[in-house]
């Protein structure tokens, strides 16, 4: 039963549950269905990776959840965003602000455009404590230094007076993590947090984020197009394609035994040491234009296993069952032939 104020933490109410979310963009060129009946959930202390190629609707999903959708042209046209059981899409303005301002935080790909270029990082961090917690200037300043130390910025005490552009990309991303952590939120949504960084720095920032997520027991939605980065940090994965969820699974099950041809294609495209010298297999073809999503299964023009039914009937995400006929916990696939895929 949905209530308007957040229910106390009940074990069976997920921290965040997105149900049948729909977002469309209305532009001069037509209507793009960027998010189409997307459902997923994240528990407290859990990391869900949302994986998909560029243009699959990952960022738009995050923006709709956070209430920062560019509207117009974007509109949420259906679904629910339940935070501890209360729907943020229908909650009052004050309730929405409270949850999205303090209980949820977001980390973006590009820290340089997310941070204010004319304020020192210390001033920006301190402002969080002044505005949201009503702390004094001096106290807020001390908290800012403390946070910078938490995200391991060397010489935090002096660097607190520097401006965003004076930091390297990796250090800036740490500062954005610090900003997100400031109010100790229950949930962080990180949208490609390491994509713009060098590979070695990527790993360091990802490790830091994972470590802090465990320490603070936050829920984390980690959005990425890179299957390589999620293996070590995610508990579960949701695979998106053309604005829809194609497969959800605990991370190790997905790697071992994918149940959707698109997931299989993504897995085959990861460079592997034992395949050095062989040509990289990437999923053939291009993702669809969201203004003209193919009928039936949106993946059918690229699917190596396509059959007649795929061209006409849209497969919905459905639970998977094991050899003993029992449902496999946390596993769904939106493929007409999910059983064959699973046991392939
Ligand atoms: N501001 C916008 N105006 C019009 N269409 C948009 C806008 N933002 C996103 N879209 C549409 O939504 C699709 C998904 O975008 P996005 O969620 O950013 O993809 P990604 O999975 O790469 O994060 C885009 O391909 C585009 O069709
Ligand atoms: S429903 Fe058909 S086209 Fe879609 S992924 Fe499954 S086999 Fe491929
Ligand atoms: Mg994106």
From TrEMBL:
Keyword Cell membrane: yes
InterPro entries registered for this protein in UniProt: AAA+_ATPase (IPR003593), ABC_Ni/Peptide_Import (IPR050388), ABC_transporter-like_ATP-bd (IPR003439), ABC_transporter-like_CS (IPR017871), Oligopep_ABC_C (IPR013563), P-loop_NTPase (IPR027417)
Alphabetically ordered keywords of this record: ATP-binding, Cell membrane, Membrane, Nucleotide-binding, Transport
Signal peptide per UniProt: none
Alphabetized CDD domains for the sequence: ABC_NikE_OppD_transporters (cd03257)
Membrane topology: Peripheral membrane protein
One protein family per Pfam: ABC_tran
A GO term, aspect molecular function: ATP binding
Domain ABC transporter: 18-267
Cellular localisation: Cell membrane
Keyword ATP-binding listed: yes
PROSITE patterns according to UniProt: ABC_TRANSPORTER_1, ABC_TRANSPORTER_2
Family: Belongs to the ABC transporter superfamily.
Xref: PANTHER family: DIPEPTIDE TRANSPORT ATP-BINDING PROTEIN DPPD, OLIGOPEPTIDE TRANSPORT ATP-BINDING PROTEIN APPD
The protein's name: ABC transporter ATP-binding protein
């Amino acid at each position: 039963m949905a209530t308007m104020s957040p229910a106390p933490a009940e074990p069976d109410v997920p921290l965040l549950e997105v149900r049948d979310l729909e977002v469309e963009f209305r532009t001069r060129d037509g209507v793009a269905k960027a998010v189409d009946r997307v459902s997923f959930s994240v528990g407290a202390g859990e990391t869900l990776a949302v994986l998909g190629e560029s243009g699959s609707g990952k960022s738009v999903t995050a923006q709709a959840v956070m209430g920062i959708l560019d509207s117009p042209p974007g509109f949420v046209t259906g679904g629910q965003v339940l935070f501890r059981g209360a729907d943020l899409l229908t909650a009052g303005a004050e309730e929405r602000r409270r949850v999205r301002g303090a209980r949820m935080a977001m980390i973006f790909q590009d820290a340089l455009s997310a941070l204010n270029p004319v304020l020192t990082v210390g001033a920006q961090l301190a402002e969080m404590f002044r505005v949201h917690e009503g702390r004094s200037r001096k106290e807020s300043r001390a908290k800012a230094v403390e946070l910078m130390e938490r995200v391991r910025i060397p010489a935090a005490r002096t660097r607190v007076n520097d401006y965003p552009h004076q930091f390297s990309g990796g250090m800036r991303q740490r500062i954005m993590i610090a900003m997100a952590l400031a109010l100790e939120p229950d949930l962080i949504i990180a949208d490609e947090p390491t994509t713009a960084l060098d590979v070695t720095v990527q790993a360091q920032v990802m490790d830091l984020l994972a470590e802090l997520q465990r320490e603070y027991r936050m829920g984390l939605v980690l959005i990425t197009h890179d299957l390589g980065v999620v293996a070590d940090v995610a508990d579960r994965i949701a695979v998106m394609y053309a604005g829809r969820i194609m497969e959800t699974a605990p991370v190790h099950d997905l790697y071992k035994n994918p149940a959707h041809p698109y997931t299989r294609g993504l897995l085959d495209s990861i460079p592997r040491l034992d395949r050095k010298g062989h040509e990289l297999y990437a999923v053939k073809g291009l993702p669809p234009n969201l203004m003209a999503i193919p009928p039936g299964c949106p993946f059918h023009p690229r699917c190596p296993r396509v059959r007649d039914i795929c061209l006409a009937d849209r497969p919905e995400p459905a639970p998977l069952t094991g050899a003993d006929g029992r449902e496999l916990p946390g596993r769904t696939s939106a493929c007409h032939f999910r059983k064959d895929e699973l046991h392939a």
